[in-house]
Design goal:
By secondary structure, this protein is of the alpha+beta class. The protein is built from three helices and three strands. The radius of gyration is 12 Å and the shape is globular. The relative contact order is 0.30. Pfam families: DUF2007.
Length: 71
């Protein structure tokens, strides 16, 4: 698995997941429980992970939809 996106913005995470699932790219969200533990203040970012072989196309899908990958 390779990190694709890290964000505190839940709308960006939800939009990115929907785009990737629409392209049949399996996506796994990390740090969900940690961000809940911080009291939902948005201090701890969540990470979206994809398989290494899907990383290039997944990054292309997100950048084509104006999602900044910060890389």
């Amino acid at each position: 698995m390779k990190e694709l996106l890290r964000s505190n913005d839940m709308t960006v995470i939800a939009f990115a997941k929907a785009l990737l699932q629409g392209e049949d790219i399996e996506v796994f969200e990390l740090d969900v429980n940690m961000s809940i533990l911080d009291g939902s203040l948005g201090i701890l970012p969540r990470r979206l992970m994809v398989r290494r072989e899907d990383h290039f196309i997944a990054a292309s899908v997100l950048t084509a939809n104006d999602i900044d990958l910060g890389q």
